[in-house]
């Protein structure tokens, strides 16, 4: 990745990618709302969405995913009393926020006929690693490489997207909107009640198996003794259960790390329809970090390896879910911390 000056001296942001499929695949993971909040910074471009204040998701397109990346934040007016860097007043100058139509962006990126490859998760044993070969992000899967240039000239300007394939060039401009107030779901990283690192294919297979039950809820239980981790989909005619014992060589391959700081069983309930919306991220990620905080908020952070001409790069897709409030719980009570 290289950073170089553009001829447009006053341009706020520009980036070039030779792997349009990677951008398209990653953004599709969070394509369940009409608008996405965009944050451009020196580290990359972040897209975030939320649904009814009970789920949010974000994708970070790190600058390493682009062959050229240039960011020039606009000067900000100093607050009254002068600039106070100690209180973090300068942080706003390091990020350029706006909102954009996510479906329109995805449709633009696939103008040259990008299609989704058939899933590599099918036709193999539960939780096993996908077969070797070109990934869904590999430009070789498309055929002729497509080059994408993103640019944002000034605050309030459209996001310009220029796609070039061979001798054909298409220019699109997408309307940007003033960002609404940020309302991301808080996760207390200082009060983590569960942390599990697992191959994403394992979680994908488990959730996919339970999705056929048409259950409205998904219960996630962690225990200091076997089974260490279990997923339950209750229904009117019975319940379906997937368990990970955490014991033995094969289980250690499934649960790479397991940390239960409180040392007692924990059970949280989530809306299954929301969990299903993370299936695309589960299908393409390599690993996933599953965490509860003390209030039961579920964090799924997916590590995705992206292949491009510059070699393998890593980026992240993150989901957060608010748990169901149990009928006998008050607002100050923790989720179900049972004795084991």
TrEMBL record:
Coiled-coil region list: none
GO cellular component terms, A-Z: checkpoint clamp complex
BP GO annotations: DNA damage checkpoint signaling; DNA repair
Compartmental location: Nucleus
Region spans: Disordered: 70-93
Keywords: DNA damage, DNA repair, Nucleus
SUPFAM superfamilies: DNA clamp
Cross-referenced Pfam families: Rad1 (PF02144)
Record family assignment: Belongs to the rad1 family.
Full protein name: Rad1-domain-containing protein
